[in-house]
Amino acid sequence: MRSAPFYWLVCDYPGCNRSSTEDGDYAAFDSIDFAKRDARENEWVITTLLDHFCVEHTIEDEETGERSPMPDTFEARVDAIIRNADERLEGIVEMAGIRAGVRIREAQRRLDEAGGPDRHAIRAGEIRAANLRALREAMTHQGFKFVDFAIAA
Q1: Torsion of CA 38, 72, 16, 65, to 10 degrees
Q2: Dihedral sign, CA of 39, 43, 48, 53?
Q3: Which of 2, 38, 82, 109 has the fewest CB atoms within 10 Å, counting from its CB?
Q4: From CA 73, how far away is CA 61, in angstroms rounded?
Q5: Is the separation of the CB atoms in 54 and 16 below 8 Å?
Q6: pLDDT tens, residue by residue, 28-38
């Protein structure tokens, strides 16, 4: 049996431990050069001092399009937190929409099975309530906490 070293990069921004292979097809590479190339292809910045920065902790120069490490300031950290929250919320809203769609289709199926003149009468208030419940469920699943939550029809 033999073993070999494997390589990946870790973001050097304070407080970040993101791996360069987190969102990729491989967990690690058998050479440092392959690990660096993969990171650069995923918009990581590798400085001349051999510091590594994930795309979340880099900024793009609007004129040249080149990326550079984000300065370690309070404002930069807040911006990174907001970007991360925005990305999480987009996923949450998408998941809530899917869940709401499933619930609405299920309600429609039950109404269709019941028959009668009201079988297509799903009120707008019921749809909004289903959407809000699904959104709350998805956000709670992602770790958001609610102090008070009310659904108005």
Answers
A1: -30
A2: negative
A3: 2
A4: 18
A5: yes
A6: 888 899 999 99
Number of neighbours of residue 80 by Cβ within 10 angstroms: 17
Maximal C-alpha separation, the chain: 74
pLDDT score for 143: 66
Spatial distance between the Cα atoms of 9 and 36, rounded to a whole number of angstroms: 7
Residue 107 one-letter amino acid: A
The 3-state secondary structure of the chain reads CCCCCCECCECCCCCCCCECCCCCCCCCECCHHHHHHHHHHCCCEECCCCCEECHHHEEECCCCCCEEECCCCHHHHHHHHHHHHHHHHHHHHHHHHHHHHHHHHHHHHHHHHHCCCCCCCCCHHHHHHHHHHHHHHHHHHCCCCCCCCCCCC
Low-confidence ranges of the chain (pLDDT < 70): 111-112, 114-132, 135-136, 138-153
- Pair of tokens at residue 124: 């707008």
What does the pLDDT read at residue 43?
A: 87
pLDDT at 124: 47
Q: In the structure encoding, which two tokens stand for residue 121, read together? A: 């009468």
